[in-house]
Every structure is written in C-alpha cells, then in structure tokens.
Specification:
alpha+beta; 4-stranded mixed beta sheet; about 10% strand; 4 strands; globular; about 45% helix; Endonuclease, Chain A; about 140 residues; 5 helices; binds zinc ion
Length: about 140
C-alpha cells in the first residue's frame, strides 16, 4: 500500500502500524526470485522476524525503511514536525530491537544483512550485495 502514496500522504500514514511486504521488500523478493534464490519471508520463529531468510546459507536479511530504523542518511535523520518526542522514542525502540535481534541471530550462527531503503531507490538491490549473496550460496553448495 505504501508505495502508491505521495510523500504527504505517507507522512500522514506514519501513525499506522508498519506494513509488511513494503515496496522495498517486494523489490528484494523479485530480485531473489529472479536469481532462483529460495528464501522464507517474515520468519516469525527467528529473533526480529527477518524479512528474508536464506536457510541454506544461514543468512537473515532485513529490509529497513531509513526513517523507521534511523539510518545514517538524509531520510533517516529527518525529524518530524509534530510529536517529535513520541516519534524519537518509537524509533529508538526500533533501533534497540534491531540491535537485539541481530545479536541473537548472530549468536545462533546466522549472518545478518541489512538492506536500506535508500540503497534500493531506483537501482534495485546493490550489485555488490547480490554478488556476495551468490558467493555465499556457492560456498554453501560446495559444503553440502
Ligand atoms: Zn537510508
């Protein structure tokens, strides 16, 4: 739903619960599918319910909206004009939750990758990341 909104509409929607399967997530899903990479979506049994899980290579991928997860980029550092305190606390909680999830996943032997929304903009998944994914899957296949 969020992808069809103008920035003005989007900011009006900020109070709504974060939606699953956002436009950036769909983009990542399409690229993984195109490369024949099998993955699970929204793995609720894992810490932080990663957006994508490539079980074969033990990779957990989070696709993060820059604003919601306080990315160090222009969009991520934007401060809202109203309810500033409310939003900053909410985002601080997200960041804490993200860190805890990553820590728990790593402790269970998962690699944790974060794909930021701003990196996807108009370009799709960064080629560097796809290459790394291919390499990791290749070596996982070698060790089967
Ligand atoms: Zn960003």
């Amino acid at each position: 739903m969020a992808d069809t909104l103008t920035p003005e509409q989007r900011s009006r929607c900020m109070s709504k619960v974060r939606s699953k399967n956002t436009a950036p997530e769909r983009l990542v899903a399409a690229e993984l599918r195109a490369r024949g990479i099998r993955c699970r979506r929204h793995a609720k049994n894992l810490p932080g319910a990663p957006d994508f899980v490539v079980t074969r290579a033990k990779i957990a991928i989070f696709v993060h909206g820059c604003w919601w997860h306080a990315h160090n980029c222009p969009r991520g550092s934007r401060t809202p004009k109203t309810n500033r305190r409310y939003w900053s606390q909410k985002i601080a909680r997200n960041v804490t939750r993200d860190r805890r999830a990553a820590r728990e996943l790593r402790a269970q032997g998962w690699s944790v990758w974060t794909i930021w929304e701003c990196r996807l903009k108009g370009r799709g998944v960064p080629p560097r990341l796809l290459r790394k994914l291919d390499d990791t899957l290749d070596s996982a296949a070698d060790h089967r």
